Amino acid sequence: MTEINLQSIKQVNRNRVFRLIAARQRISKQEIAAELKLSLPTTTQNLNSLKDEGLIEENGTFSSGIGRKARAVSIVADFRVAVGLDITPHHISLVLVDLNGSMMDHVREKFEIADSELCYGQLAEKVRNLIDKNKIRPEQILGMGITIPGIIAFDKKTITSAETLPVPSNFCQILQEYFDFPCLLFNDASCAGVAEFWKNDYENQTIAYLLLSNTVGGAILVNGKPFEGMGNRSAEFGHITLVPGGAECSCGKRGCAEAYCSALCLSRKTDNDLAVFFREMNRGKEEYRKLLEEYLDYLAILLNDINMCLDCPVVLGGYMGPYLKPYIPRLSQLVVERSTFPTDGSYIKPCTCEFEAAAMGGALYHIEQFIKNV
Ligand SMILES: [Zn+2]
């Protein structure tokens, strides 16, 4: 066996050990050795090198069993952190994420994005405030993932199109000037899908993520990675035509799914507040119940279209995701009636990453890149 092969096996083992500790949060050396089918000396060697670099630490003992208690190890979750910044026309969300993929802190506030030095300076200050508030040292920060409702070029820096945001195509490079850590740009729906994949056991599966917010977007995740397509704009589910010549869409065309399935279809009745819409409806407001029934009918068409193309689980995310959970049985019934092929509709999945999924996904990109190279 060549030197290079030996080195790469060592690297792979070390990475597997680190990932297992991260997944279990607390585990003993003996369990690691058994689970990864490694010898105890090899496991010890890997644990020592990870510990020496500050990536893992001892974390008490396991009390069960007889004889010597097994010592537990955990990863040092804040050894490295990443920032996620989600930008919509009137709001920003900021999250700080550790190596466990857990949200350490977050900020969501109204912010009118504009193409001005003042606006960029304020944005940078908000990022710095979050970092300072959490006492994060510069060497801990892996980078920032910025997510927007738009199409991003393959360089992960240039905006190809983002009609709802008044910023130039080099927006990411402008923000980069304010920071020493790398800033990368992503599509919001793709990142929300990445965050969903991270939180669930979808290993070796393809999933579709349907982002139902004020716009409708999506992502197709193959083994956790967004399928990019030829122009990095796959899974634009919101602009599938549902009703030829129908309602006007934000893209300027008529009859797109977004015009029938965005959260605004319901929340425009209640001053953009979905919680109020559902509360009023549950209190018996007939007009809202009918509106929701109509919404579910259109959503079922879209879900069936996606299922006919991809035949994979479809996660309902975005602002609507949490509100749609009680209506999944109804949606299943509707897609069963519509489907050409036998299905029980169980491909429709609720989202589990309900909060700041896009910003989380932006940060998780940097976390994943780091863990890949541990
Ligand atoms: Zn459209």
UniProtKB/TrEMBL annotation:
Name recorded for this polypeptide: ROK family transcriptional regulator
Gene3D superfamilies: 3.30.420.40, Winged helix-like DNA-binding domain superfamily/Winged helix DNA-binding domain
PANTHER family, per database record: BIFUNCTIONAL UDP-N-ACETYLGLUCOSAMINE 2-EPIMERASE_N-ACETYLMANNOSAMINE KINASE, ROK (REPRESSOR, ORF, KINASE) FAMILY
Keywords of this entry: Carbohydrate metabolism, Xylose metabolism
Entry coiled-coil feature ranges: none
Family: Belongs to the ROK (NagC/XylR) family.
Its biological purpose: Transcriptional repressor of xylose-utilizing enzymes.
